[in-house]
């Protein structure tokens, strides 16, 4: 109840932001705006309060359920990093992903099943989103690096890091983070396209028109 | 009386002279009064000036990484408990407040203390952490509801002390635990809240006590006088100093509230000596002796600290536990006597042990090598005075759990090597970093890790031997049209004449030639002949350029001997080089510091994560494959005597001429460790890279339980079936067929399937099913 007010405020604040910046998960940019607001409201409710990333998220349905650190990739992708069925999967605890933790209200066709984030990474990306919306780009960077330490191979974290670096005017690092993200984005064409798009923006910022065009070409190929 | 009588008698005889004398006396005393008044004015200025400004300079504080808690995190329960102990959490059955933890089997409930971080505050909260295996499997708020992530407060690992070496943690009066003020007043200055700076009553009492005892037992100093003495004056014991002290005490009381004076006293008082460092104030003393924030101290701990005020050296609880215990109990009795606490409370408190934290535990260890790294990085950005006076908070990536495991691995290995001739003189250095973030997590600069001194991890530049070889193979694999992992190399003798006329004639370690081998075998088995040939084909400058691209600036001459590691690097530089290999060809400057906050918790500076892609991911993928084969079938294979077979790791041994340097550098997915063993005088050791440094590395990895190396396969890499003996294209169903990665387009053309028909592979597969 107490959280409703900040939640609503944040919805208003986030709603006022440029659409490009506010998608913490790039691939949902095509989704309808009403449901996006709904999703953001959910994000906010999950993590509002002053303590970034330390708030309770919605209780998972099964008491014993376990949250996965990184998104489960679709079964067909060739080489998974922490996939449940890989022989090197470190612990049985990764076997039971709980997707009920991901934000509700996502239209079908928006966020693919393999793009869903959860637990700590989602909380920290959301915190970074709020910091960025409040103009605290250093704080946002710092939260994203915290997320990167927790899930170093999550391309969506690298995407957001690149995005914030670009907002900070560091196009060189923005491109580098996007490229690192690409190396972990195999089998995720929508994300690849977004990363290439970010590379194109970075190159434009650096005055490299030809490179930007090439990156845009790659973005189209990915999709 | 006496004076008036003599005056009168003098008056009688020399009236004129007497008036003259009297006049002079009057003038003199007037002058004296003026001088005294002037002195008082001066003292008043001194008192006010120092007390109203910034009262203390505080050294920068250096913190370890905060432990993150989240479901799925790799963290053993016992490691977590070790961290909690280091942070001074009291183990109780009920979690009553911050700094308390309750352990029940695999569940730990605790109340965190909260902390101000760069990104914002982490609030104090009650959390329940559930462990299974070596992972966190549950994280809930005590009131119900799961938590996404929580952060512990970071462990304080050191400070940057100025020349006078005074250290303190400033506290405010509202942060003190119950009974501290009452106990201090009861023991040191019973009339504190009523006197005016000096207390004639206490002086009289002191004189009485000392007179009856026949010796100095008690001082009559008030807390205010003690503060004045410590804060403004030297420690000489003269009457004039005593008078100055009294005057200043009165002046201080005139200008400031009792609370201000008390707070200053609590921060100023000297409570112990830690080597070069003087422990001042109750805030630091609480951390130093109990690892706990002052606010959490219990009655018995408060009594102990207050008891130490009388003589911090004499009543040092670590050095003189018995007499300190007696002093503490005496004070508890006094408190009961004066009605500050009940007799029951005092009795209960007296039952408790001293409870002082042991030296050498996680919290009470010094990490001179890592602090040295932090200082060097900070000095590039800050003035010395900023670091020693402004109370900056330095947040680092130091992981005390990993550090202790690294130190233990060194100690264990040396114990096992003990008895080998010459091992006694062998020194050591070790660097552990996270290859995915470029953060330094642990640093060992000496075989005696507690001693500050020559920091070999940063300063010992030694020939790297075969550690250079991955750079040669990487340079080759960057040319897929020329080289693949299964290209043939000649491992045959070679000799070349240098420009200076000297003949360079490398040898294999076993002094044999191995004929024709696969390229990857040259690296896996660390053959010098084939590697030298490969390097010469590529060109020495190309190889040196590759080393530079990997992240190490050197000015090595382009001699052929550089191909076998005649050039020197520090363990830290090697870590930088291997970091690029471990992180998919992305170079990251190694960092030890994350951010800096001001004393008030305001963000000051960040040391951001930066990466730069230096190599094609495909070429790096192939080098990593070869480096994994070092461990599976090459010079590093003894590692699997200590590590489980399912764990993929990659690395390289290095041994310089005459075994003067024993190196190993290697990584898992989440840990990169570099170990160097050798003598400071550069003499020969009985250790090779495999028998020395690798053993330390393996022991460390076994304890650290790393994540298996699983690099994502880059787009331009493909797997192909090849015949293990001929290296030619084969088929999944064929005998001796093995799968190898190639840069797309460089793989051998697919072999004929072995079933004779095109669908043979599938038929074999089906047959396998039927069988």
UniProtKB/TrEMBL annotation, chain A:
Domain of life: Bacteria
Keywords of this entry: Signal
SUPFAM superfamilies: TPR-like (SSF48452)
Protein's name in the database: Uncharacterized protein
Lineage: Bacteria, Pseudomonadati, Pseudomonadota, Gammaproteobacteria, Pseudomonadales
Region described as Disordered: spans on this chain: 30-55, 78-97
Statement: the UniProt record of this protein carries the keyword Signal: yes
Biased composition (Polar residues): 83-94
Signal peptide: 1-18
InterPro entries: TPR-like_helical_dom_sf
Automatic annotation (TrEMBL), chain B:
Domain Penicillin-binding protein transpeptidase: 429-668
Family: In the C-terminal section; belongs to the transpeptidase family.
Protein's UniProt name: Penicillin-binding protein 1B
Domain Bifunctional transglycosylase second as annotated: residue spans: 69-152
Annotated TM spans: 21-43
Residues at the catalytic site: 188 (proton donor), 466 (acyl-ester intermediate)
Record GO terms (molecular function): penicillin binding; peptidoglycan glycosyltransferase activity; serine-type D-Ala-D-Ala carboxypeptidase activity
Listed GO CC annotations: outer membrane-bounded periplasmic space; peptidoglycan-based cell wall; plasma membrane
């Amino acid at each position: 109840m107490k959280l409703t007010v900040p939640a609503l405020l944040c919805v208003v604040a986030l709603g006022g932001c440029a659409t490009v910046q506010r998608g913490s998960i790039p691939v949902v940019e095509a989704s309808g705006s009403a449901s996006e607001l709904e999703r953001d409201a959910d994000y906010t409710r999950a993590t509002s309060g002053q303590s970034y990333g330390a708030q309770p998220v919605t209780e998972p349905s099964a008491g014993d359920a376990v949250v996965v650190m990184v998104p489960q990739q679709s079964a067909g992708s060739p080489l998974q990093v922490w996939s449940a069925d890989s022989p090197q999967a470190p612990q049985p605890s990764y076997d039971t992903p709980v997707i009920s933790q991901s934000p509700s209200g996502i239209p079908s066709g928006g966020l693919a099943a393999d793009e869903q984030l959860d637990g700590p990474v989602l909380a920290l990306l959301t915190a970074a989103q709020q910091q960025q919306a409040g103009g605290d780009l250093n704080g946002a960077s710092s939260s994203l690096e915290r997320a990167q330490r927790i899930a170093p191979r999550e391309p969506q974290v690298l995407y957001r890091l690149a995005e914030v670096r670009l907002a900070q005017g560091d196009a060189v690092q923005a491109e580098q983070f996007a490229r690192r993200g690409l190396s972990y984005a195999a089998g995720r064409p929508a994300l690849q396209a977004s990363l290439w798009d970010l590379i194109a923006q970075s190159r434009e910022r650096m005055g490299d028109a030809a490179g930007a065009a090439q990156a845009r070409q790659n973005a189209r190929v990915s999709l | 009386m006496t004076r008036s009588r003599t005056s009168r008698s003098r008056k009688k005889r020399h009236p004129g002279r007497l008036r003259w004398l009297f006049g002079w006396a009057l003038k003199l005393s007037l002058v004296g009064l003026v001088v005294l008044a002037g002195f008082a004015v001066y003292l008043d200025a001194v008192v006010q000036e120092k007390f109203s400004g910034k009262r203390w300079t505080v050294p920068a504080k250096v913190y370890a990484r905060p432990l993150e808690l989240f479901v799925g995190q790799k963290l053993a329960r016992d490691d977590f408990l070790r961290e909690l102990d280091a942070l001074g959490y009291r183990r109780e059955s009920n979690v009553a407040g911050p700094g308390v933890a309750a352990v029940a089997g695999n569940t730990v409930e605790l109340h965190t203390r909260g902390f101000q971080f760069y990104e914002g505050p982490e609030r104090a909260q009650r959390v329940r952490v559930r462990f299974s295996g070596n992972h966190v499997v549950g994280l809930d708020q005590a009131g119900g509801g799961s938590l996404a992530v929580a952060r512990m407060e970071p462990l304080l690992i050191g400070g940057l002390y100025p020349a006078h070496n005074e250290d303190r943690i400033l506290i405010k009066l509202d942060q003190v635990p119950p009974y501290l003020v009452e106990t201090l007043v009861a023991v040191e200055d019973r009339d504190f809240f009523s006197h005016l700076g000096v207390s004639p009553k206490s002086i009289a009492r002191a004189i009485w006590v000392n007179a009856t005892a026949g010796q100095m037992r008690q001082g009559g100093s008030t807390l205010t006088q003690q503060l004045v003495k410590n804060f403004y004056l030297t420690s000489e014991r003269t009457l004039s100093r005593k008078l100055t002290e009294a005057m200043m005490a009165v002046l201080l009381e005139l200008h400031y509230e009792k609370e201000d004076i008390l707070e200053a006293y609590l921060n100023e008082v000297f409570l112990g000596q830690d080597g070069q460092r003087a422990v001042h104030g109750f805030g630091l003393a609480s951390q130093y002796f109990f690892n706990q924030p002052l606010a959490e101290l219990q009655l018995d701990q408060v009594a102990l600290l207050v008891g130490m005020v009388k003589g911090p050296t004499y009543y040092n609880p670590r050095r003189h536990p018995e007499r300190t215990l007696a002093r503490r109990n005496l004070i508890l009795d006094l408190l009961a006597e004066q009605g500050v606490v009940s007799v029951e409370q005092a009795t209960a408190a007296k039952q408790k042990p001293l409870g002082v934290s042991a030296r050498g535990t996680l919290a009470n260890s010094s990490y001179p090598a890592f602090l040295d790294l932090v200082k060097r990085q900070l000095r590039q950005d800050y003035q010395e005075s900023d670091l020693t006076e402004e109370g900056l908070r330095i947040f680092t990536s130091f992981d005390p759990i990993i550090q202790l495991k690294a130190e233990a691995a060194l100690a264990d290995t040396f114990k096992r090597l003990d008895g080998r001739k010459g091992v006694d003189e062998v020194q050591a250095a070790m660097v552990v970093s996270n290859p995915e973030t470029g953060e330094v997590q642990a640093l060992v600069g000496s075989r005696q890790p507690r001693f500050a001194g020559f920091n070999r991890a940063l300063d010992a530049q030694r020939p790297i031997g075969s550690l250079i070889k991955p750079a040669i193979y990487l340079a080759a694999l960057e040319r897929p049209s020329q080289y693949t992992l299964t290209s043939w190399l000649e491992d045959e003798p070679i000799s070349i004449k240098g420009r200076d006329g000297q003949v360079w004639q490398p040898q294999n370690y076993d002094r044999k030639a191995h004929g024709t081998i696969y390229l990857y075998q040259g690296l896996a088995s660390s053959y010098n002949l084939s590697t030298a040939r490969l390097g010469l084909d590529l060109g020495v400058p190309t190889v040196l350029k590759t080393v530079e691209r990997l992240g190490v600036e050197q000015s090595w001459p382009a001699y052929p001997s550089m191909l076998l590691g005649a050039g020197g690097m520090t363990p830290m530089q090697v870590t930088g080089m291997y970091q690029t290999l471990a992180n998919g060809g992305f170079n990251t400057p190694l960092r030890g510091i994350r951010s800096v906050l001001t004393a008030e918790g305001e963000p000051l500076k960040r040391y951001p994560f930066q990466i730069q892609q230096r190599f094609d991911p495909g070429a790096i993928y192939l080098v990593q494959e070869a480096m994994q084969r070092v461990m599976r079938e090459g010079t590093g294979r003894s590692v699997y005597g200590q590590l489980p077979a399912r764990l993929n790791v990659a690395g390289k041994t290095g041994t310089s001429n005459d075994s003067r340097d024993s190196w190993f550098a290697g990584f898992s997915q989440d840990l990169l460790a570099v170990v160097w063993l050798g003598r400071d005088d550069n003499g020969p050791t009985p250790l090779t890279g495999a028998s020395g440094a690798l053993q330390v590395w393996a022991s460390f990895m076994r304890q650290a339980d790393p994540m298996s190396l699983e690099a994502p396969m880059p787009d331009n890499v493909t797997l192909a079936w090849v015949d293990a003996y001929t290296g030619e294209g084969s088929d999944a169903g064929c005998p001796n067929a093995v799968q190898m990665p190639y840069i797309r387009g460089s793989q051998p053309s697919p072999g004929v399937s072995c079933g004779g028909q095109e669908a043979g592979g599938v038929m074999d597969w089906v047959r396998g099913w039927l069988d």
